[in-house]
C-alpha cells in the first residue's frame, strides 16, 4: 500500500493534498525541498506560510542538538519554571507595540485565537464577537465560528455568538468602489452590524491585517484604524490575528498591524513564529490578562522547551539576518514582476499583498472577473512540474498564494518569476489547442 492509499484508508478525508499527483517531501534546506524521487523544488509557500527563516536553519539545528545532548526535558508544563518559556515571553513582549506585555503560549494559531476570544469576552463581560466574511482564524470550535468561508464550515458547526461584517476586498468591492477612492464603506459596515445584529455592545472584533486563507486580501491601511475606532466606541477589543502576517512577513514591522498605526488590545500568532515548530502565542494588554486571574487555564504543551527555544531563535535570526528588510526588498521585486506578467497574461486579474505575502487572483476575463479556479489548479500543477511549489486560497480557490521563506535570495526570486512565466505560457498554449 503506497502513502496515498494509506492516507485514504486511515486518515480523515479532510486532509486533501494540493496536487492530483501528490508528492512526498523528504528533505528541506533554506527555500528548497526535495521529494522522494530526488526532484528539487523551490518552496514558494513555506509549508502553509510557516517557513519564516528557511528550512532547517543551521542555528536552530545546532540549538536542538545541544539541548538533546544536555537531556533538556521535552515537556516541562507550566507547573515548573522554564527559562525557555519565560525568555520567549520577554522577547515577544519587547517586540509588541505599546501596552501589550502579557503572553500565553499554545500549540497552534487556532488555540491562540480561542484564548484571545475568551480573554476579550472575560475582560469586557460581553459575548458577541465580530469577524469578517472571507476571514479565517483556525479549525477549532470558536475559530471556525469566526470563519467567513463555507469551504471550512460544517453543518454541525455552531455559531458561537459571532456576527460577520462585510469583507474589505478591494478587487471585488461589494460597494463597487476603488481602492484609494472610497469612503471605507466596508469598515462602516462594522457599525451597521453592531447596530443591527447585536445588542449594541460587543466583546471585540478580530481581523487579519492581510486576510490569509481568503486569498491574501490586503485592505487599505486606514481600514484597520477605522475598524478599531468603531469597535472601541462600544467598549469592544481589537484583536489582530497575525498567525500568517506576523514575524515580519509583510516587510515593514514584526507585526503587520503596526503599519496601520493601530495598537491592538490582543495579538495572536503562530506559523512563522515557530519557523516549523508547533507553537502559537497570544500577546495582550495587562488589564486583559489580569481579568482572567483567579482561574486556572493552561495548554499542556504550550511553551515547552524545544518549541519555545525555536520561536526565540526565529526572533533572533530575523533580527540578525535583517529578514524583514529582505522581505520588503524581495517582495517588492516579486510583486512588480507579477504585475509585469499580468500585462502579458490577462488571466492574472489582480496582484496584491505586502512583503512576502503576495496574492495573485486568476480570472477567466479581466472585465467580468469570473474566477478561474480550474486554471489556478492547472498553473499549480504546471509549476510543480517545473520545480516550483505554490499555495492556493480564496473563496473560489482561484488565488495563488506566494509566501516563501523571508530569507529567499534574489536568484531564487528570479527563478520563481521565470517558472511562473513558463507555466503561464504553457497554460495559454494548452488553451489555444482546445
What topology does this entry show?
Elements (H helix, E strand, L loop, with lengths): L2 H8 L14 E5 L2 E4 L4 E4 L2 H4 L8 H12 L13 H13 L4 E7 L2 H16 L4 E4 L8 H6 L15 E4 L19 H13 L6 E4 L13 H13 L3 E5 L24 E4 L10 E6 H5 L14 H16 L2 H22 L3 E7 L2 E6 L10 H13 L2 E2 L1 E3 L5 E4 L7 H24 L1
Parallel strand pairs: 3-13, 5-6, 5-7, 7-8, 8-9
Antiparallel strand pairs: 1-2, 2-3, 4-10, 9-10, 11-12, 12-15, 14-15
Secondary structure category: alpha/beta
Strand order in the sheet with the most strands: 4-10-9-8-7-5-6
Beta fraction of the residues? 15-25%
Overall morphology:
globular
CATH class of the largest domain: Alpha Beta
CATH architecture of the largest domain: 3-Layer(aba) Sandwich
Number of strands: 15
Largest sheet: 7 strands, mixed
Element order, helices and strands?
HEEEHHHEHEHEHEHEEEHHHEEHEEEH
Oligomer: single chain
Count of separate DSSP helical elements: 13
Can I get a quick summary?
The chain is an alpha/beta fold and 434 residues long.
Describe the structure.
The chain has two domains: 3-24 and 42-49 and 322-433, Aspartate Aminotransferase, domain 1, CATH 3.90.1150.10; 62-320, Aspartate Aminotransferase, domain 2 (3-Layer(aba) Sandwich), CATH 3.40.640. The protein is of the alpha/beta class and 434 residues long. The strands form three sheets. Strands 4-10-9-8-7-5-6 form a seven-stranded mixed β-sheet, sandwiched between helices. Strands 1-2-3-13 form a four-stranded mixed β-sheet. Helix content is 38%, strand content 16%.
Amino acid at each position: 500500500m503506497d502513502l496515498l492509499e494509506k492516507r485514504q484508508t486511515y486518515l480523515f478525508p479532510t486532509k486533501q493534498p494540493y496536487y492530483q499527483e501528490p508528492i512526498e517531501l523528504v528533505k528541506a534546506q533554506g527555500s528548497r525541498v526535495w521529494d522522494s524521487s530526488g526532484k528539487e523544488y523551490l518552496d514558494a509557500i513555506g509549508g502553509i506560510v510557516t517557513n519564516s527563516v528557511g528550512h532547517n536553519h543551521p542555528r536552530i539545528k545546532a540549538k536542538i542538538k545541544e539541548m538533546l545532548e544536555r537531556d533538556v526535558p521535552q515537556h516541562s508544563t507550566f507547573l515548573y519554571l522554564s527559562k525557555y518559556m519565560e525568555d520567549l515571553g520577554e522577547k515577544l513582549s519587547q517586540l509588541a507595540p505599546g501596552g501589550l506585555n502579557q503572553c500565553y503560549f499554545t500549540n497552534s494559531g487556532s488555540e491562540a485565537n480561542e484564548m484571545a476570544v475568551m480573554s476579550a469576552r472575560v475582560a469586557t463581560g460581553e459575548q458577541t464577537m465580530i469577524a469578517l466574511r472571507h476571514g479565517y482564524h483556525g479549525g477549532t470550535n470558536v475559530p471556525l465560528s469566526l470563519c467567513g468561508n463555507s469551504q471550512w464550515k460544517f453543518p454541525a458547526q455552531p455559531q458561537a455568538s459571532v456576527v460577520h461584517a462585510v469583507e474589505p476586498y478591494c478587487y471585488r468591492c461589494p460597494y463597487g468602489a476603488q481602492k484609494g477612492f472610497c469612503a471605507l464603506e466596508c469598515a462602516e459596515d462594522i457599525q451597521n452590524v453592531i447596530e443591527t445584529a447585536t445588542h449594541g455592545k460587543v466583546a471585540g472584533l478580530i481581523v487579519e491585517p492581510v486576510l490569509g486563507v481568503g486569498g491574501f486580501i490586503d485592505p487599505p491601511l486606514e481600514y484597520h484604524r477605522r475598524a478599531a475606532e468603531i469597535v472601541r466606541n462600544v467598549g469592544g477589543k481589537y484583536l489582530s490575528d497575525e498567525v500568517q502576517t506576523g514575524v515580519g512577513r509583510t516587510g515593514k514591522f514584526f507585526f503587520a498591524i503596526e503599519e496601520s498605526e493601530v495598537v491592538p488590545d490582543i495579538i495572536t500568532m503562530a506559523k512563522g513564529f515557530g519557523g516549523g515548530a508547533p507553537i502559537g502565542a497570544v500577546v495582550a494588554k495587562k488589564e486583559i490578562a489580569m481579568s482572567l486571574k483567579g482561574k486556572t487555564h493552561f495548554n499542556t504543551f504550550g511553551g515547552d522547551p524545544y518549541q519555545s527555544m525555536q520561536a526565540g531563535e526565529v526572533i533572533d535570526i530575523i533580527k540578525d539576518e535583517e529578514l524583514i528588510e529582505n522581505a520588503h526588498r524581495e517582495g517588492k521585486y516579486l510583486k512588480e514582476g507579477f504585475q509585469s506578467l499580468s500585462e502579458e497574461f490577462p488571466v492574472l486579474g489582480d496582484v496584491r499583498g505586502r512583503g512576502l505575502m503576495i496574492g495573485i487572483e486568476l480570472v477567466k476575463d479581466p472585465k467580468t472577473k469570473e474566477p478561474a479556479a480550474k486554471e489556478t489548479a492547472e498553473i499549480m500543477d504546471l509549476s510543480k512540474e517545473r520545480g516550483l511549489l505554490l499555495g492556493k486560497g480564496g473563496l473560489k480557490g482561484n488565488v495563488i498564494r506566494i509566501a516563501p521563506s523571508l530569507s529567499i535570495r534574489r536568484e531564487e526570486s528570479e527563478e520563481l518569476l521565470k517558472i511562473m512565466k513558463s507555466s503561464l505560457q504553457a497554460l495559454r498554449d494548452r488553451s489555444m489547442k482546445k
